Amino acid sequence: MPEIVLKKPIYDKDAEQLQKCFTQGVIELEDDNNGRRHAIVSKPRLDMCSREALRYPELKDRIELNKIRDHFIFSIESA
């Protein structure tokens, strides 16, 4: 499962740029008390392991992209 860590807050135009780098729904923009929009990681499971954000110098130092290798999804059936 992908893990997206925002190491520093990302606001306004940079937040919009970050949102465009990922699949729709992965990054959401929220308004804060000062009227600025900031990025939050909403649904990391939707990410297709895109490294697009690392191409932008203004973003690459503010985010960390990892994979959680021991994350499993399964169901147990019992009678």
Written account of the structure:
With 79 residues, the chain is of the alpha+beta class. It has a single domain (2-67), classed as Gyrase A, domain 2, CATH 3.30.1360.10. Helices cover 18% and strands 25% of the residues. The chain has 2 helices and 4 strands. It has helices at 12-21, 57-60; strands at 2-6, 27-31, 37-41, 63-67. The strands form 2 sheets. A two-stranded antiparallel ribbon has the order 1-4. Strands 2-3 form a two-stranded antiparallel sheet. β2 (27-31) and β3 (37-41) form a beta hairpin. The longest helix has 10 residues, at 12-21. The radius of gyration is 15 Å and the shape is elongated. The mean pLDDT is 90. Keywords: DNA-directed RNA polymerase, Transcription. InterPro entries: RBP11-like (IPR036603), Rpo3/RPB3_RNA_Pol_subunit (IPR050518).
- Looking at the structure, the CATH topology is Gyrase A, domain 2
Output mean pLDDT. 90
In CATH, what is the class?
Answer: Alpha Beta
Look at the helices and sheets and give the structural class. Answer: alpha+beta
One letter per element, helices H and strands E, the order comes to EHEEHE
Helix % is: 10-25%
**The CATH superfamily title:** RNA polymerase, RBP11-like subunit
The count of domains is: 1
Please tell me how large the radius of gyration is.
15 Å
> How many DSSP helices?
2
Cα shape: elongated
The CATH architecture name reads 2-Layer Sandwich
The main pleated sheet reads as:
2 strands, antiparallel
Spans of at least 5 consecutive residues with low confidence: none
Query: Which range does the strand content fall in?
Result: 25-35%
Overall strand count: 4
Beginning-to-end CA distance, first to last residue: 30 Å
**Strand adjacency order, main sheet:** 1-4
